[in-house]
């Protein structure tokens, strides 16, 4: 009982610190992800998701569903999930960020899932960060999945951003998504990755693979020999206009296969937008 109370008080103290109008730093997000996992172990995965998820949060299981609708169908007694962040990134305005890292789920029937989570966090009106999207690559082959090292520390830097560039960033990314679609149709998927992805881009194909770096991304896209048509459904950006997210649906060209995708766009030092995260799944039976 004391351990649970201490955990809850620790989480509340972090949120109180973050609610001073400064947003959240990468160090704050690292602690939030770590506390999120700790709460899931002590009080249950469903309970923790209800505490850390925004009211309009969506998850992809594999189709998009509201977090709370999904949680209502689960029972904590049937599985246990543990995770830790290997990378966190936060926008210059400290209002949008993401975490990723390995996770493991153990089920009551003895089965074990390995994967790489991706969680997108946004500053809420009350000053606390809550996750708005959870997507990643689950059920990865255990013999091929090498977990990244746990992130031990992150930047505490917080910057004051006085100019709101959110709308212009969202408009820019909407145009970039249109260009990405057109470029893919004309030049192909490999050329698109070469042109529009960052050097350390991370790609996730749900239930299949997780790769880091543009060279491995190109190898995976080449191996798959697919071409997608992407249909964005929602675009959002940070106040600083340096980080944006897009999620929606896709169709594998020449087939009836469809699914969902999420991309994170970030501005590089020279002001160019590049894809740093791409998560893709195919929904079984959905055409």
Question: Tags for this entry?
Answer:
287 residues, alpha+beta, 7 helices, 37% strand
Overview of this protein structure:
The protein has 287 residues and is α+β, with helices and mostly antiparallel strands. 31% of the residues lie in helices and 37% in strands. Strands 1, 2, 3, 4, 5, 6 and 7 form a 7-stranded mixed sheet that branches. Helix 5 (166-187) packs antiparallel against helix 6. It is globular. 38% of the residues are buried.
Topology (elements, then pairings):
Layout: H1 2-18, H2 26-43, H3 45-52, E1 53-60, E2 64-66, H4 67-71, E3 79-83, E4 87-90, E5 96-107, E6 112-123, E7 129-137, H5 166-187, H6 189-196, E8 197-205, E9 209-212, H7 214-224, E10 228-237, E11 243-252, E12 258-267, E13 273-282
Parallel strand pairs: 1-7, 8-13
Antiparallel strand pairs: 1-2, 3-5, 4-5, 5-6, 6-7, 8-9, 10-11, 11-12, 12-13
Helix pairs in contact: 1-2, 2-3, 5-6, 6-7
